[in-house]
Write a sequence for this structure.
């Protein structure tokens, strides 16, 4: 074992030792983790796999939903397929959705499952099309400049989550790793935002926690301090006064939707922090912004 592996193992053991008082709180709990494409390389990726494996080993049921935006962009570039955007949203035609499914449900899905398997747990990579997990519908979105409906092609949103395949896997001691593509009524494939899928699955599972790994610390105040604990009413106030803006708005909206569906707490955390999952669950106050009722 090399020095880096020894150092990482020692750090994980230290976290677990400090976490013992918190383990009872999450014993048998379902934790849904959204894992973004920006943290899927190098040391952080291996640490993520070990952390998910550790959650399973201590009696928690993790369910992973992953993205893969950078990997999709890289493949589109290799295939010389140009992206068209409307109001900042990528139009996904039939050719592009085939690439999206190939990347998300193929290489990225198996990479994430492999990280967990390498760490000693048993993960199974599936997509939202497997077992009818995600029944999708076409995303309806109005333009920023007008009230006209945008046609984004095969971009969808969850219409229904059938949790049977997840329960079958977790009941057998396996960790589901889910690619965010779903199937429409006529069998068409839809690309769905991974944050949205994670929130919908967390709600359908009545998960205790939803952890959204991002590349920012969480929700920041106007003076750039981390806001660690927010009620949904407070989130609405912060959106109204402009404290929460831009790309953070859909993330907090996903968290609020999950909480509305029954999730006890939804947290936005910085996935580039080593062992972010363990620090959030097993330290006092965590390291991100938790949204609750």
């Amino acid at each position: 074992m090399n020095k880096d592996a020894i150092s990482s193992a020692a750090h994980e053991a230290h976290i677990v030792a400090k976490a013992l008082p918190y383990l009872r709180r999450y014993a048998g709990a379902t934790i849904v983790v959204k894992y973004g494409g920006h943290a899927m390389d190098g040391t952080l990726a291996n640490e993520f796999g070990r952390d998910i494996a550790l959650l399973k080993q201590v009696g928690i049921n993790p369910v992973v939903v992953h993205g893969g935006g950078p990997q999709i962009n890289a493949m589109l570039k290799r295939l010389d397929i140009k992206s068209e955007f409307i109001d900042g949203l990528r139009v996904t035609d039939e050719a592009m959705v085939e690439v999206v499914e190939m990347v998300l449900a193929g290489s990225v899905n198996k990479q994430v499952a492999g990280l967990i398997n390498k760490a000693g747990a048993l993960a199974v990579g599936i997509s939202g099309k497997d077992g009818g997990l995600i029944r999708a519908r076409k995303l309806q979105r109005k333009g920023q400049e007008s009230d006209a409906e945008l046609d984004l092609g095969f971009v969808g949103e969850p219409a229904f989550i059938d949790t049977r395949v997840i329960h079958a896997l977790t009941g057998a001691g396996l960790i589901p790793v889910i690619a965010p593509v779903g199937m429409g009524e006529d069998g068409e494939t839809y690309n769905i935002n991974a944050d949205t899928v994670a929130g919908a699955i967390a709600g359908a599972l009545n998960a205790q926690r939803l952890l959204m790994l991002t590349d920012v610390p969480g929700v920041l105040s106007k003076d750039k301090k981390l806001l660690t604990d927010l009620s949904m009413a407070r989130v609405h106030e912060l959106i109204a006064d402009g404290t929460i803006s831009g790309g953070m708005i859909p993330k907090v909206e996903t968290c609020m939707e999950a909480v509305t569906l029954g999730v006890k707490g939804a947290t936005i955390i910085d996935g580039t922090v080593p062992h972010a999952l363990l620090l959030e669950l097993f330290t006092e106050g965590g390291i991100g912004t938790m949204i609750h009722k």
Summary: The radius of gyration is 19 Å. The chain has a mean pLDDT of 89.
